[in-house]
Amino acid sequence: MSQIEEDCALALQWLTALMSIGLFIWYGWQVYKKQCGWEVIYICILESFKYAFEIAAESQTPFTIYLTRWDGKDVTIAWIRYAEWLTTCPVILIALSNLTGLKDDYNWRTMKLLASDQGTIICGVTAAMGHGWVKVVFFGVGFVYGLTTWYTACAVYIESYQNVPNVAKPTVRYMAIMFFVSWAMFPLLFLMGPEGFGHISNAGSTIGHTFADLLSKNLWGIYAWFVDGKLVDTRTGMDVDDKFIYGDASNAPNGHSGMMSMGMKSPSMGMGDMGMNGGMNGMNGGMNGMNGGMNGMNGGMLAMNGMNGGMNGMMSMGAAKQEIILIADHNYFSAGGILANKLQSEMGKKVLKAMSKEELISVLQSSTVSGQPPSLIMVCDGLLSQMEANMLIQNFKAPIVQFGNGLVPEISIGAEYIQNVCSTL
Q: What is the structure's pLDDT at 152?
């Protein structure tokens, strides 16, 4: 081990420590502004402590463990490195498993990532302490665990790339490249370093692992924050052509109204701005017509028929295509069942059902592929957040009406229309 290697290792450790502290301060401000998830700030805290301990007392126990094997050979285990992996890698994978924010907080994929990652690290520690066939077997088992993590992560990145707004797609691609390149460095460093064949020294191993940490945690975290920021921007910074939802005029940027931001130019609606505005006027009792599609309804019919009038008015906007309504509800489909019965039994409409966010996305994808996408998505019991609704509007081009608990409207095409619908439920 040369002095140059030791100096380079120390300089790189200082760089990573200072970068982690700086990012911690920055992410703290972003969390305050609600433009950042908790995962990246948590990782920076642990990184800061880890490198502070390494700089101050890396060679001391318990940060480094010294063992004597049964064959009399001394073994050095960089325990602080493995301890940091055990605490940071699961958080990275939690953030990765729900990169788009469209899934439930914790699902089977999250658990698969966590289980495989823990298996990889534990087998790696055991292999580092082992000798002969024990080292080979545990490294092999850990490698299989690692391949499972890679496979699942690859599926997450592909799905995320398909579902995030276009402005965030390049960042997701860079995140994937950064993830796989940096995570591939760790088993290679294990094989080349003191734990494996010993081709590089302890200082050389420290340099390699520190550089891998910079890529896999610090820089990856910056990309994750950037994606979060782009998703938040869908609520506040997109214009009409981006087809995002704003609950009312006060929430819309640049003076756009909530109704105008519902995706008036959506192909599934087959109407322009005039069609949507005409539909809204018709719902409000004026009913001045929508190129013949709304002539059969007037304000008197709305007052008398309530739900039927409102639904007919909404569906007539998509008369050029088969009228399909997708209803999503996660509370035992109680509120969704009310809407489904109204649409099916009283109005003869085709209804698709989803009982979770994941099923909602799956139904949307399959119906789009089949060439029969829904003309309208009705979401019950506050299933979607504003950001999630925005993303669905952009990716699937179908307007969304969302009801909160007790069918109280949260996101709507028009306030008066929704009141008419709710008054009959």
A: 93
Query: Which tokens belong to 31?
Result: 């969390």
Considering only CA atoms, which of 251, 277, 246, 254 is closest in space to residue 264?
Answer: 277
Q: Are 234 and 261 in contact (CB under 8 A)?
A: no
Q: Give me the pLDDT at residue 67, please.
A: 84
Give φ, ψ of 60 to 5 degrees.
-95, 155
Helix axes 3-32, 38-57, angle to 10 degrees: 150
Residue type, 9: A
* Residue 266, C-beta contacts closer than 8 angstroms, at least 6 positions apart: 243, 393, 397, 398, 399
- Kindly report whether the peptide bond that precedes residue 62 is cis, defined as omega within 30 degrees of 0: yes
Measured between alpha carbons, how far is 98 from 87 in angstroms, rounded to an integer? 18
For residue 43, give the 3-state DSSP assignment: helix
Residues contacting residue 327 through CB under 8 Å, at least 6 positions apart: 336, 339, 340, 343, 351, 352, 353, 354, 377, 378, 379, 380
DSSP track, 114-160: HHHHHHHHHHHHHHHH--THHHHHHHHHHHHHHHHHHHHHHHHHHHH
- Rounded Cα distance, 419 and 414, in Å: 9
223-239 in b/e form (b: 16+ CB < 10 A) is: bbbbbbebbbbbbeebe
- Residues 179 and 172 sit within 8 Å (Cβ to Cβ): no
Say how far apart CA 48 and CA 411 lie, in whole Å: 42
Residues 351 and 327: beta-carbon distance below 8 Å: yes
pLDDT at residue 212, as a whole number: 95
Look up residue 294 and give its DSSP letter: T
Helix residue spans in 130-257 (DSSP H): 133-163, 169-192, 202-213, 220-236
Q: What was the pLDDT predicted at 328?
A: 76
pLDDT at position 102, please?
A: 56
φ, ψ (nearest 5 deg) of residue 76:
-110, 125
Note the pLDDT tens digit of each residue in 133-145: 999 999 999 999 9
Burial of 4 (0-12, 13-18, 19+ CB in 10 A): exposed
- Three-state DSSP class for 48? helix
pTM over 0.85: no
Place of tokens 């739900």: 307
Residues of the chain with pLDDT under 50: 104, 234-322, 406-425
- Cβ atoms 84, 42 nearer than 8 A: no
